[in-house]
Amino acid sequence: MRQAGRYLPEYREVRGDRDILETCKDAELVVEITLQPLRRMPVDAAILFSDIMVPLAAIGVPVRIEPGRGPVVTPPIRTMADVERLRPLEPESDVPEMLEAIALLRAELEVPLIGFAGAPFTLASYLIEGGPSKNHERTKALLFGEPAIWEALMRRLTDIVSVHLLAQARAGAQVLQVFDSWVGALHPDVYRRAVQPYVREVFQRVRAAEVPTIHFGVGTGELLPLMVEGGGDAIGIDFKTPLDAGWSRAGGPAVCAVQGNLDPAALLALWEATEGEVRAVLAAAEGRDGHIFNLGHGVLPETDVAQLQRVVDLVHTETERVPQ
Ligand code: 1CP
């Protein structure tokens, strides 16, 4: 999840006041930061240190990540002329450091490496809003009011995202996660019409990589069946949706695996309370195959590492999958 490294003092030390997008262009730093959480606890997979805005920065979109805020795009992208300036991604020349870091990581890691990208809608929302947004109203206004611009933008982003994911898999990523973090802002009918076709194309193109895929969004209780249709071997269930009900809505274990869904805020409580929440997630999964235990969204920066370590141990003990 986003900000995985942010709760670690060693991450803050390595980053210093360097810009996160600059950090992503240094293969050795990317390797180091990706490995940091694994040195602290025996999680079952590593997530590449990167950000969903990396491929957009790489094709020249004026984006920076503001500390404490997130991605800011100035000027934002709102006209057909703006959209036409988004050129295709050429991973070998645009994100060579990321590909190099993936290869280096594969040589070091004993657990699978997860590569990722933002989904077209979530990327579009940053481009159109110009930054993080609560209600995504400009994005929706464009989607409703300027369908030709919306379609052109989503087509270009679909291509960029697919090419970016396929390159990560070729470089060695063993799982690919697609973050459609903000898609929960949409009515299901709007999702079906204006988002799902593009997400489906991403998953169809990525199938060529022959690696498992995860499809994640927040506030998606109403969208889960449509997200499953969009694609992904596993569907993320956010922390506001009961895992068992969400899994049923997604079609159940015969249709897809699920990832989730501890409330990240539960990690801030006393251990007894945290433990109760972890056990509740495990109980909802009922030990069925196809449950990937995870947080229901990104880890909060103020989280105590010891709490995460205890959660990892508890999950391993309870699921009898303690690594050797
Ligand atoms: O090690 C890790 O943290 C994993 C690498 C990672 C991932 C998977 C980062 C680094 N970003 C992401 C994905 C990401 N980035 C998502 C999708 C996952 C999610 O929903 O959380 C999103 C929406 C972003 C955009 C983004 N980047 C935000 C959110 C802003 C908003 O709209 O609320 C923020 C705060 C960032 C900055 C960022 N990216 C990553 C980190 C560690 C940080 C924190 C800032 C920093 O350390 O400087």
Helix content: 40-55%
Strand content: 5-15%
Quaternary structure classification: single chain
Which kinds of small molecule does this entry bind, naming each only once? coproporphyrinogen I
Number of helices: 16
- Which regions have little confidence, pLDDT < 50, spanning 5+ residues? none
For the largest beta-sheet, the strand count, sense and barrel status come to: 7 strands, parallel
- Work out the radius of gyration: 19 Å
N- and C-termini, Cα separation = 25 Å
Sequence of secondary-structure elements: HHHEHEEHHHEHHHEHHEHEHEHEH
Gross morphology is globular
- The assigned structural class equals alpha/beta
Biggest sheet: strand arrangement: 1-4-5-6-7-8-9
Task: Kindly report the average pLDDT value.
Answer: 95
> Count the strands?
9
What's the gist of this structure?
This protein has 324 residues and is an alpha/beta fold. It has 16 helices and 9 strands. It has helices at 9-15, 20-23, 27-40, 54-58, 80-84, 91-94, 96-108, 120-129, 137-145, 147-171, 188-194, 196-206, 224-230, 243-249, 271-285, 305-318; strands at 46-47, 63-66, 70-73, 113-118, 175-179, 213-216, 234-236, 257-262, 291-295.
